[in-house]
Amino acid sequence: MPKNIVQMNNQYIQDEHQRRKYHDEERKKRNRFMGWVLILIILLFILPTYNLAQSYQTLQERKQQYVQLQEKYQQTIEEKEYQKDIAAKLKDDEYAAKYARAKYSFSKDGEYVYTIPNLLPK
């Protein structure tokens, strides 16, 4: 057998409903304010994080560029040493004649020159 529940409607009940409504509205305002604060904090953390990631990427690119430049520098040093060595050797007339004959296919009268690949000096 269902019983009907009747709610009393006196001043106390009305005051309690009004107080609960007021608290609910205050809670909504507070939650909305906290939501905006959280969004602002998230935005404030996103910007420095993005800048940090960009800086890290730039640093990695610079490191890679530094390694490439070191390799190029080492190659340049080796090439310079080779050129110095060739220049010193070319001061010797006998070596200069051999070099010219090998590199540019010069020959003496009555002599035949056969070139062999990868045997010539650079």
UniProtKB/TrEMBL annotation:
Gene Ontology biological process terms from the UniProt entry: cell division
Transmembrane segments: 33-53
PANTHER family, per database record: CELL DIVISION PROTEIN DIVIC (PTHR40027)
Pfam families with a match to the protein in the record: DivIC
Organism: Streptococcus rubneri
Name of this protein: Septum formation initiator family protein
Family matches, as InterPro entries: DivIC (IPR039076), FtsL/DivIC (IPR007060)
Alphabetically ordered keywords of this record: Coiled coil, Membrane, Transmembrane, Transmembrane helix
Coiled coil ranges: 52-79
